[in-house]
Amino acid sequence: MANSDNRGLLPAGLRDVLAPDAAHESEIVERLLGTFAAWGYRRVKPPLVEFEASLLEGAGAAMAGETFRLMDPVSQAMMGVRADMTLQIARIAASRLKAEARPLRLSYAGDVLRVRGSQLRPERQFVQVGGELIGAAGPAADTEVILMAVRALRDIGLDRLSVDLTFPTLILSLCRFLDIADGREAAVRAALDSKDRHALAAALGEDRAGRAAFLALLDATGPAGPGLALLEKAGLPAESRSDIDHLADVAARLRAAAPDLALTVDPVEYRGFEYHTGIGFTVYRNGSRGEIGAGGRYLAGSGFADREIEPATGFTLFLDTVIRSLPAPQESPRLYAPHGTPPETVDVLRRDGSIVVAGLEPAGDIDAEARRLGCEAVLDRGAPRAVAAGARAAEAPE
């Protein structure tokens, strides 16, 4: 009976990253973090696994359904594998960096693991790179993180970017004002998620005030200028008006700082912003599948009774989408140093930036050996030269 060797198979949504993609990914991460550092964001590195009690309490409860759990064999306590890094950064700010001056600017990069992928992002393990601004509540802070995300992406060569602004809590505040609760609220949110006007009308029934308010939000979805103008005329209640004013303030600041950046508004978007408490945003690139990044306002330190809750805003860039939006990487040329080449000669070449593959055993045909090892040049009599072409294949018979 033949045995099938399945050791190369991986669970759905997981993959090996090979050369040259692995090196390219690392380079992009460092370039993004370099831009964040130039804006004053200091890098921190939280652990891959934390106790469930700290990882999923407070705002982290929104990620409970996406989190792998396991038992710590030492403490016998349940642990979770991070599904998102933002809340880990908030924990660090509220504990290890509690005495640091505010606003606190932190950056990070690392893998996250989720229970399931999505239609647009089937990967369950992917790299997040981002920044968090903790201890600042005004629109200037929201503007800073959005501009920094856009600048970092442009610095690595991504163009045709757009930012979609939303306010995830707007729907909740309107439902409270209009006394829409329980099943009706769920039906309204489902209709708004799918932008389904007929389903929205069915969910609201004879509630004319509700229909007018929510249809005004749907009508405002689109380019920021016309959308915000419609929202200002919509006659929304005071609490909602405050949200819209904040949104308009951030949009005005973005237009002034980056007039070439495409801005849209989506007042009914909620999915993906479950733990956010204020303005949210998503970064897209024309021609790329899925969002490049997302972020928004949340409460840092929530869920910990002994820690002060403070305003925070930040963003995460999804490196899988970023990488797909960039040209495919090319490996650097490799130089073959035949067996017996003096080590000091090889060291000088490597210090000068060359990638040198040293022969470990004598080879009868150094050009053939160089080709076999993927080298484009060979060190011959102390100087590099192009690898000679191999023997011509026999011509096919006529």
Quick structural overview:
The protein is an alpha+beta fold and 398 residues long. It has helices at 21-38, 52-55, 86-94, 139-155, 169-177, 182-193, 197-204, 208-219, 224-232, 238-257, 319-324, 343-351, 366-372, and strands spanning 42-43, 49-51, 68-71, 78-81, 104-113, 125-134, 161-166, 222-223, 262-265, 280-285, 293-300, 310-318, 334-337, 355-358, 377-380, 383-386. It folds into 3 domains: 16-145 and 276-331, Bira Bifunctional Protein, Domain 2 (BirA Bifunctional Protein, domain 2); 169-268, no CATH class; 334-386.
Summarize the structure in words.
The protein is α+β, with helices and mostly antiparallel strands and 398 residues long. The protein has 3 domains: 16-145 and 276-331, 2-Layer Sandwich (BirA Bifunctional Protein, domain 2); 169-268, no CATH class; 334-386. The protein has 13 helices and 16 strands. A hairpin with a 6-residue loop joins strand 3 (68-71) and strand 4. The model is unreliable at 392-398 (pLDDT under 50).
